[in-house]
Write a structure and sequence with these properties.
DNA-binding, 5-stranded parallel beta sheet, 4-stranded antiparallel beta sheet, transcription regulation, elongated, binds calcium ion, 2 domains, 223 residues, Arc Repressor Mutant, subunit A
């Protein structure tokens, strides 16, 4: 899953990004409100962590403009200001959660996971497709209760597929989920990950189906 982190305090941005990447997420990091607004308008994120005090455009304004575009992704606001009126203001603008600085990285990570679980998995702790089970708490896939060993790229592709049951995902949509802003997004690489995933899923009553020219879909095999 790909998320956006917007924080102008560089050491804090770096440590938060590292913690979230350690949890297996693809994280884009931006440091000002204008860049954040553009990225939120053009990229497909599963969640945003948004600082309130940002150069060029503050976090409240970024949030308001993003919601005005009809974007419903979960947004966790970060702020140094602990005042109730700021918290209420953020929530009124459509923030989903709020964390006051200073905070523990483990708390931020737990809240991000909770928001993702609510939005991406519709509140379920687990997502299932035939014998394949995805646990968002541990971020692990298992097949017949055996943990499936995946690289982080393979993991991102499979997460994107299992989060959208019955929907075809194009190579470009998958690449958007797998590669960050500073990486070369390659639709060809997606073919390689799909090939490897197919090998790992082989013979387990779940498969990735190709729709030529359209993309891929994950489905349970019934026989
Ligand atoms: Ca700030």
């Amino acid at each position: 899953m790909r998320i956006l982190l917007v924080e102008d305090h560089l050491p804090l941005a770096e440590s938060v990004a590292q913690a979230l990447r350690g949890a297996g997420l693809t994280v884009d990091v931006l440091h000002d409100g204008v860049a954040a607004e553009h990225a939120l308008a053009s990229e497909d994120y599963s969640l945003a962590v948004l600082d309130v005090g940002l150069p060029r455009l503050d976090g409240f304004e970024v949030l308001a403009r993003t919601r005005a575009r009809g974007k419903v992704l979960p947004v966790l606001m970060l702020t140094a200001r602990g005042e109730v009126k700021d918290r209420v203001h953020g929530l009124n603008l459509g923030a989903d959660d709020y964390l006051a600085k200073p905070f523990e990285l483990t708390e931020l990570e737990a809240r991000v996971k909770a928001l993702l679980r609510r939005s991406v998995l519709g509140g379920e702790a687990q997502q299932r497709c035939g014998a394949l089970v995805y646990d968002l708490g541990t971020r692990r896939f298992s097949l017949h209760e055996q943990v499936l060993s995946l690289t982080s790229r393979e993991q991102s592709v499979l997460e994107a597929l299992i989060a959208r049951p019955g929907r075809v995902m194009s190579k470009e949509q998958l690449a958007d989920q797998v590669f960050g802003l500073d990486e070369e997004a390659s639709a060809d690489a997606i073919e390689i990950y799909i090939h490897r995933l197919r090998k790992k899923l082989e013979g387990n009553a779940v498969r990735i189906v190709t729709f030529r020219g359209l993309g891929y879909l994950l489905e349970a095999v019934s026989d």
